[in-house]
Each structure stands twice: as structure tokens, then as C-alpha cells.
Input
Amino acid sequence: MPCIYTISSCSIPSFPRTRSNFHENSRFPHSSISKLSSIRSLLGVAEPKLAGISEPLLLNAVRGADVERPPVWLMRQAGRYMKSYQLICEKYPSFRERSENVDLVVEISLQPWKVFKPDGVILFSDILTPLTGMNIPFDIVKGKGPIIYNPPLTLADVDQVRQFIPEESVPYVGEALSILRKEVQDEAAVLGFVGAPFTLASYVIEGGSSKNFTKIKKLAFSEPEVLHSLLKKFAVSMVSYIKYQADNGAQAVQIFDSWATELSPVDFEEFSLPYLKQIVDTVKQTHPNLPLILYASGSGGLLERLRLTGVDVVSLDWTVDMAEGRRRLGQDVAVQGNVDPGVLFGSKEFITGRIMDTVKKAGRRKHILNLGHGIKVGTPEENVAHFFEVAKGIRY
Output
């Protein structure tokens, strides 16, 4: 029996009617639903078995349970597009203060939860947060982004990089996660996140953000032993960080390897893949049921290699067709994504159409609906609200 996707009657009335497989529940009164159940019985077709409500929808979907709709959350769902966040920024202009103060972290993390009720509540933080605890001083400057003050460029420099001990360096992260779990209960999954070794190394070696990545590539191709030494330390440290987040309330953890796609496939296999595998394998030894999500923007040329990391979920960016991504990754790997963030600047009808196209192509198993990247600054908040309303009204 083909999968039929519906929009519940609480959804936007202006949802376009097409000849696709998407229909509105309002077109099926209760009597019709009862008749449908009777027909199923006559035909010997079992009613769909839906996952229980004891665990968040997102976790059930990742594990392949039969869920009624795809869970939905958005990268950067807590951030600058929200008026409530802008007000906090006016009072606390330092990003590090906002991301390293327990009360502020919790308040900001919960802002989208209180308004949109996403199925995932992600910790408000930054992938560079562990650096200070590794003896790598940094700051995040408004208008400039991250600045690394003393990039480690030699083996002697890397020797000065300490292994990360989360309990000592970022206790506010564990405390914030614990509070978020209590606040959200199991109505949504609490998500933690970390940076992947190569992406962390990219920021550190480049001294901040980069367009060409010439410094880290020069190091990789002229003194690879220095880079590998640094990547090993990041890998071990991120294992500790993921476990720490899980032990303090994170129910899934996303690994951001944002800059790994700057590598050619052969270089990805040397400088990124082994360390991602090391992280996944080591975490799974003690936390076998913790879902790990991997996101790398612009990853179309590396999808088959991302699968080799062993993660539970591969998050696709919007440059990959969802149906094609599914075929290339295989049905046993969950997928996340992958609506273009720019779509949220379109009309509500346009947004609805793109959501439906993505969900249809992803299929009804192991899909987390998300954007293909973080929400862009200036995105209309009402369009984000529309995205969640439509997404949560879908029924398989």
C-alpha cells in the first residue's frame, strides 16, 4: 500500500491542492476514516503500528520505528532571526557570555521550544567552546566571527594543546543540558553537538573563519604529522565531550564537520574520515544507543564516505536531492534535512510545497525534517512558524 501524506486540519488553510499524494485530513471526515478502517479490515491490511509515546518522536524515527510523521527541528532555530533573542543580545552583547552562562544558555535554547514546539531542542552553544579548556585561547567578535589568538603550527605548539576535560572546563554545558531535559521532559529530544576534528583544526590553524583554507592545506600537504597530531587530540577530546553531554541529558548529539567538504575525497579519507570513525566507534562502546548525527555542508561528493563513519544519521544539505541522497546512503542510515534555508524567505505556499517535496522523497522511515543549513539572519519569524505548523501537521 503506498504511503499517503496528509496535512492535519489544524494546518494552514491555504495549503495548495495538487494531484500529488498529499491530502488534507479535513477532506476525510470521521465517518470516512471509520470506513477506511473497515476497508482495511476487510482487505486484511493491518493498521499502521505507531511508536509509543514514552520516548521523543525524534528518537523513535532514528531507530526506524513506525512514526506518524517526520520529527522536525531546525539548525540555528535559537538565534538572530527571533526578536526575543535580539533582546537578549542587546542586554548581553558578548556571544561567549550568552553561550557560557547557564541561565542564558537555557533561556535561549528554550526560546524556539516555547514558540514552535520543535521535536528537537538543541543546546545553545558553539563548536569552539571546548578550545579554552584545551589551552587554545579564542574569542568570537561581533562582525568578525571567531578569532584564534595563537594557532598551533608546529609539533611543539601542538604539544601545548591539552586534552579536554568537560567537567572542569565547561560545567555550565552539563548543567544546562540537565535543566533542558527537566524542562522539555520527553516531549522533544534534547540535542547536544560538537565540532569534528578537521573542522575544529580548520578554525584553529586558519586563526578563524576562512574562504580558501590555504593555511590548513599547506600544513596538511607539507607537514601532515603536525596536523595529524592535532586531529588526534581533537578526536579524543570530542569523544569525552559527547559522552559528557549524553551523561548530562543530551539524547542525541550532532557532529558538525562543516569544512571537511573543502577536502578532496582522497584527502577526506586521510584527514577527516579516520577521526570521525574513531569518535563514533569509541562513543558507541559506552553509549551504544546514543544517536549520532553527522552534518557536513556541501557534502554531495562525499555521501558514500560519510556513511562509512558509522553515524546513525547523515544530515544532508540542500544541494543534494533528497531522493538521490536516500539511494546513495541506503535505507539503513537515517537522513536529516534538507530544505534550502532560503526557502523560508518565500511565500507560505512555496514553503509548504518544498516541505512536502522533501518529505515525499525521504519516505516514511528514518527521516528528520530539517533545513539543509542553519536558519539565515533576517528570516521572517512568521515563516519559521509556518514551517513548523505545516511540518507538525503532516501525517504519513
About this structure: The first strand starts at residue 5 and ends at 7. The two ends are 12 Å apart (CA to CA). DSSP finds 17 helices and twelve strands in the chain. Residues 1-52 have pLDDT under 50 and may be disordered.
